[in-house]
Amino acid sequence: MSPSIVEVVNVSREVAWLPWAVQYFFLIGLSVGSFLLTLPWFVLRWPAWERVSRIALLGALACGLTAPVALLADLHQPGRFLNFYLHPNLGSWMAWGAFFIPLYLGGLVLYAWLVLRPDLKRLADAGGRWAGAYRAFAYGGHDSVGAIRIAAVLALAGAALVALYTGMEVMVVSARPLWDTPFLPVQFFITAVAGAIGLVLVLDRFVGDGRAAAEAPLLRLLAATQVLVLAVGAAWLLLGISGLSPRHAEALAQVAPSAAWQITAVWAAGSALVTLWLAVRHPEWRLAAGLIALHSAWMMRWTVFIGGQEIPKTGAGYYVYHLPLGHEGMLGIVGTAGLWIAVLILLISVLPWAGQRRAQA
Amino acid sequence: MSDDTLFQSRRAFLQALPAITAGVALPMSTARAAEGKHHWAMLVDVRKCIGCQACTVSCIMENAVPENSFRTIVSTYAVQQEVDGQMTASTYMLPRLCNHCDNPPCVPVCPVGATFKRDDGIVVVDGDRCVGCAYCVQACPYDARFINHDTNKADKCTFCAHRVDAGLLPACVETCVGGARIFGDLNDPQGELRRRLDAAKNADAIKVLKPESGTRPNVFYIGLDPRFQGRVEGQAAMWQPNAHGG
Ligand code: SF4
Ligand code: SF4
Ligand code: SF4
């Protein structure tokens, strides 16, 4: 008996988590990863890391402040976001997210202010039109290591919880075998850190002096993330192919026949290998390595969210997704990117992010 | 539900017809549900479905389902297989709707508790509470939910709760040409649904979709081919409304 089944009539469910969601997970991940890169200098005071940490602080703030906008825009009823606080269902990871995000962002902003206070004071001392404002904002300009540590712990707790909930929120959706894997939160986190390193490399080229990677072992760290990405990917594949985990086998069976998914897999593995190769062998091409790492972090989320939603839960084959131009599609991507650039420019122009070097200039 | 009440319901339906307007987003009258004696369920006799989509249309009319969205649809498949060395082609019809699961994965994920299961078993969305986050849409293993583009809230089959609360049958049941959809109360031993279920159960003929997912559906099927019980292995739909993202 060789049956063949052709679906003649069925409904196609459209993507309900929009490109805005991809943007949110991308930006909040980059912010958390960048925040981690600020710790070596601002908290641990390792001098080699100063450039990296200062640029990373810019990245953490710009991404962190833009991310919630993307998240709100992904709600189909954004005006009702207060319900998250009025009627939280604490059995839902998403409900917890509504509390973790402010915790993280509050901690991050407090931490950023504390670490930049001495620089704000220096800026005020240098005089100029805004000296008064900077002096008030510097609030004495103390370099209070104790307070910085406390704020760092707060932000770190927030960052850990954000990383946890963003991963768990997707992982618990057992209706989608592709999402239903403990590797997913890990993969989100590693690619976020890799993307953050990429962001530092890119910003270093355009707003820094291009030497961030010279002193700190940033490229080695990037290489390590790529090894981990490849290892986790291989482990997922192995569990699926061997059938050791029926869930992973099911997920693999859903995507394996699709040429688009095959290309995506080769693309992702290829990107990781190229990033690894550039990071290890060609430090002079670190801008390219950074860009590829950033792109991989974004692609991973796009594939998981948009690609994942193209897999019917009951029907045959795949749903077809066409990126619409308006609010539900392209606008979500372009809009968040534009907002991110605007916030970044604002931060660069008002904050003494580069420290002494800039204050003296 | 006994045949008698069925008849009552039909007559009530006809009398109430002018008053039943489409688009009732669900006035959550839980007065009846609070009594806790009903457990609404549906039995779909796949053998009787002729694939006419009368249910699909009546559901859209009754519930003002926006264009290109569906609370129920009759998935239709062309099946070719070799039987005794002969290639045969047949059509397989499978009416799909929300299963009003006893263990519904759509409920715990809702961040604001907008999705809940009433005491009478019907799973509904509180439209005033819903923030349109679509988490429930992701969590439902049956693709039974969608975001309604008119209301921007989660939408799905409600077992026509507004009709059931008024003593009527769901619209799709009322209009089913083949008599394939039987709606009733699992707790009513004399009801047609219970009797049909019990009779078929002895013959081991009752199935649900994706039983392995642990959702414990309240939409039961007679004549459900195991090849269609989970995700269908086959060629994608030839006609997919909504393929362009509404
Ligand atoms: S079928 Fe889907 S929407 Fe309906 S109760 Fe079950 S999980 Fe929820
Ligand atoms: S879309 Fe509405 S009902 Fe569904 S999980 Fe979100 S808030 Fe709850
Ligand atoms: S019970 Fe009502 S809402 Fe559900 S499929 Fe039938 S007509 Fe549509």
Q: Specify the oligomeric state.
A: heterodimer
Strand content of chain B: 15-25%
Strand order of the largest sheet of chain B: 8-1-10-9
How far apart are the termini of chain A? 80 Å
* Backbone structural class of chain B: alpha+beta
Write the CATH architecture name of the domain at 10-22 and 32-100 and 157-225 in chain B: 2-Layer Sandwich
- Approximate helicity band of chain A: over 70%
Instruction: Kindly report the average pLDDT value of chain A.
Output: 94
Tally of individual helices of chain A: 14
Apparent shape of chain B:
globular
Helix content of chain B: 10-25%
Average of pLDDT of chain B? 85
Q: Specify which chain pair forms the largest interface.
A: A-B, 59 and 64 residues
CATH class identity of the domain at 10-22 and 32-100 and 157-225 in chain B: Alpha Beta
Number of strands of chain B: 10
The low-pLDDT segments of chain A are: none
List the keywords.
heterodimer; A: 361 residues; mainly alpha; Formate dehydrogenase/DMSO reductase fold; B: alpha+beta; Alpha-Beta Plaits; two-stranded antiparallel ribbon; disordered N terminus
Describe the overall structure:
- By secondary structure, chain A is mostly helical.
- Chain A has a single domain, classed as Formate dehydrogenase/DMSO reductase domain (Formate dehydrogenase/DMSO reductase fold), CATH 1.20.1630.
- Helices cover 71% and strands 2% of the residues of chain A.
- In chain A, helix 1 packs antiparallel against helix 6 and helix 2 packs antiparallel against helix 13.
- The model of chain A has no long low-confidence stretch (mean pLDDT 94).
- Chain B has a domain of 151 residues: Alpha-Beta Plaits.
- Chain B is 23% helix and 21% strand.
- The longest helix of chain B is centred in the first third of the chain and has 14 residues.
- Chain B is globular and about 60 Å long.
- The interface between A and B is large, with 59 and 64 residues.
- Bound molecules: iron/sulfur cluster (3 copies).
- The site of one iron/sulfur cluster has 13 residues of chain B, from helix 3 and helix 7.
- One iron/sulfur cluster (SF4) binds next to loops of chain B.
